[in-house]
Amino acid sequence: MILADRKSGVIVAGATGRQGLFHIGLMNDYAREVGGTGVVAGVTPGKGGQEAAGVPVYNSIREALREHDAQASVIFVPASAAGDSIMESAANGLELAVAITEHIPVHDTMKAINYARLYGTTVIGPNCPGLISPGEAKLGIMPAHLARPGPVGVVSRSGTLTYEIVDELSRAGIGQSTVVGIGGDPVIGSTFTDILARFERDPTTKAVVLVGEVGGALEQEGAASTSLPLVAYIAGVSAPPDKRMGHAGAIVEGGEGDARSKIRALEGMGIAVASRPSEIPDLVRPYL
Q1: The pTM is what?
Q2: Of the N and C termini of the chain, which has fewer Cβ atoms inside 10 Å?
Q3: Per-residue pLDDT reduced to its tens digit, 163-185
Q4: Which CATH superfamily is domain 147-287 in?
């Protein structure tokens, strides 16, 4: 596993909003199931003293940390304030900030991620589903019932496609060490390269499934950075050029960043690339 385990205490920022309330409940359901710590506190300015899905709410992360031991935050704060919430997590010494929020202004994201780096805080996202280490911890919105413990890491720019691939692996009897959704925005806190470096240091991870999409070159850069066995899937083979494909980072410009060119580059590195998610279990099995 990487990034979090069952001992990790979590603070949810934006705890009293609809999404925060709903996912605190699901994260703590999973924590109880695996015997983990889970969400210990919520934060919403002006709502201190209330409860959210059974956890106490504070006005700030600093207040929450006076009463609770936590190492990570999961951020459901509205886009206009989410950058500040990432910086608040870093300034108060949290090791990890998982930003679920989408539509954060790019300038805010750049400022927040650079600020977090100064404090040594790892940022996952924004505009991501978070992460799950099956049997250990869930931080974010991934459906836990699809995952099972095992030796395969998954790192993905997509959300729902990640869930489909995890389901394919689990149905084939192949468990996952950690599943990380890095987010689909043009600026993100952790790239494929960053997460693959963590998987390299994880003794439980024997191979990694890399799930990419059109736009940029993060997939190729990540693949070139690691010695771990990789299997890849690139979404968007039929995506037209010069169109944004849902994610802000998914745009093909100047004949670069399209799915076919990414697939050719990865295959040129000797990496097996699945043409559909159902092929992934058979491609990864030889490495286990």
Answers
A1: 0.94
A2: C
A3: 999 999 999 999 999 999 999 88
A4: Succinyl-CoA synthetase domains (3.40.50.261)
